[in-house]
From TrEMBL:
EC code: 6.1.1.22
SUPFAM superfamilies linked to this entry: Class II aaRS and biotin synthetases (SSF55681), Nucleic acid-binding proteins (SSF50249)
Cellular compartments annotated: Cytoplasm
NCBIfam families, per database record: asnS, PRK03932.1, PRK05159.1
Protein name: Asparagine--tRNA ligase
Assembly information from the UniProt record: Homodimer.
InterPro entries, per the entry: Aa-tRNA-synt_II, aa-tRNA-synth_II, aa-tRNA-synth_II/BPL/LPL, Asn-tRNA-ligase, Asp/Asn-tRNA-synth_IIb, NA-bd_OB-fold, NA-bd_OB_tRNA
Gene3D superfamilies named in the record: Bira Bifunctional Protein, Domain 2, Nucleic acid-binding proteins
Gene this chain is encoded by: asnS
Keyword ATP-binding tagged: yes
Length: 431
């Protein structure tokens, strides 16, 4: 007898198969019991008929507890009501481990309770769908960059310097030296781009930012490409093509998960390059017209400002050319203005905020050295980085996409804490 997984069942209609599964839920009615089974690949209903399986197996089916693990032998039959188009006519049940008093029951639970039981909450239908969408975004990310000639590079997590200063970094001792958990692999990727042309990384980053908003995590994952001989405008094209690619991949490969989350597909179907662009200058004017009198030129945008701008579009929107004073030291100045830099933030629609930050990078040695000094950074710690400008410098650009915010937007989840398997928040290091 063939042992299969739930997602394979449409290929085995009419066959008797065996699956390993857990009981997600159950109900019974007279002489029929309905078992909601899950195995990680999907959910399916198992129908247990007393006169078919006999008294012993039927009694087992009626008394079985939520999250009990078991092997089920059953015939796969067609069922149009099922998400996979099939259900199981159960013939035998073999219990592996009986779960008793499973803490997450089919009722409302508070957020803190669910976060305390995150290791079990992951088993729910909603969390299963979010994790599958996250996986598809990661898969399609590798697909996009490899198709377009990028090489995967793994920058270090322990660093002796920071691309954006050390005020929000986690400090540790590296034997007799100071070290920090990485907030970005960018500087190392710039070095790699000078060797390999187009590179990208995918890995964890850490921000010691004491924020409790629905958009923030202490530990999160970033996709960071860097591209030699690519200037600001070309980088924007790569960004919009990449975002459109991952959205369309999720639509194509995760229809059941999006349906389970109740996502409005029409909002995702229109996500196609090119994306609209608005300068920082025009964004300030727009916000003043909308009644945001509190913000002045030179201020960074907060969540309400980004949301107001995004609501004017039904697509992700680039805000370009931010003031020099509110951006990191490495960004290339505008060729005609010394008060703004060649950069852009990509703001997701529907109030999800910034999902990408990127810029053209400075490649003039003297200018880079000056900027490091102006930002009061330890020049000796950046000596290796200055070598990028000293030896064969070229125009180059890059960006970073925050995975969790992107998962939240595409899946329609309100808070990023549900978009990572085990979130690290300001007051949460458990489980």
């Amino acid at each position: 007898m063939k042992t299969i997984m739930i997602h394979e069942m449409p290929d085995h209609v009419g066959e008797t198969v065996r699956i390993g599964a857990w009981i997600a839920n159950k109900r019974s009615s007279g002489k029929i019991a309905f078992l909601q089974l899950r195995d990680g690949s999907g959910f399916v209903q198992g129908v247990v008929v007393k006169e078919v399986v006999g008294e012993e197996i039927f009694a087992k089916a009626k008394s079985i507890h939520q999250e009990t693990s078991l092997y089920v032998t059953a015939e796969v039959t067609e069922d149009e009501r099922s998400s996979f188009g099939v259900e199981l006519q159960v013939k035998d049940i073999e219990i592996i481990h009986e779960a008793v008093d499973y803490p997450i029951t089919p009722k409302e639970h508070g957020t803190e309770f669910l976060m305390d039981h995150r290791h079990l909450w992951l088993r729910s239908r909603k969390q299963h769908a979010i994790m599958k969408i996250r996986d598809e975004i990661i898969r399609s990310t590798y697909e996009f960059f490899h198709i377009n000639g990028f090489v995967k590079i793994d920058p270090p997590i322990l660093t002796g310097s920071s691309p954006e200063g050390t005020s929000e970094l986690f400090h540790t001792k590296y034997f007799d030296e100071d070290a920090y958990l990485s907030q970005s692999g960018q500087l190392y990727l710039e070095a790699a781009a000078m060797a390999l042309g187009k590179v990208f990384s995918f890995g964890p980053t850490f921000r010691a930012e004491k924020s409790k908003t629905r958009r923030h995590l202490i530990e999160f994952w970033m996709i960071e490409p860097e591209m030699a001989f690519v200037q600001h405008a070309e980088s924007l094209e790569v960004q919009e093509q990449y975002v459109a690619h991952i959205v369309q991949s999720v639509l194509q490969n995760c229809p059941l998960e999006l349906e389970r989350l109740g996502r409005d597909l029409s909002k995702l179907e229109k996500i196609q390059a090119p994306f609209p662009r608005i300068t920082y200058d025009d964004a300030i004017k727009f916000l003043h017209e909308k009644g945001f009198d509190d913000i002045v030129w030179g201020d960074d945008f907060g969540a309400p400002h980004e949301t107001a701008i995004a609501e004017n579009y039904d697509m992700p929107v680039f805000i370009t050319h931010y003031p020099t004073g509110i951006k990191p030291f490495y960004m290339q100045p505008h060729p005609d203005r010394d008060d703004v830099v060649l950069c852009a933030d990509l703001i997701a629609p529907e109030g999800y905020g910034e999902i990408i930050g990127g810029s053209e990078r400075i490649y003039d040695y003297e200018m880079m050295k000056q900027r490091i000094q102006e930002h009061n950074l330890d020049e000796s710690a950046y000596e290796w980085y200055l070598d990028i400008c000293k030896f064969g410098a070229v125009p180059h650009s890059g960006f970073g996409l925050g995975l969790e915010r992107t998962v939240a937007w595409i899946s329609g989840v309100e808070h990023v804490r549900e978009t990572i398997p085990f979130p690290r928040l300001l007051n949460r290091l458990y489980p």
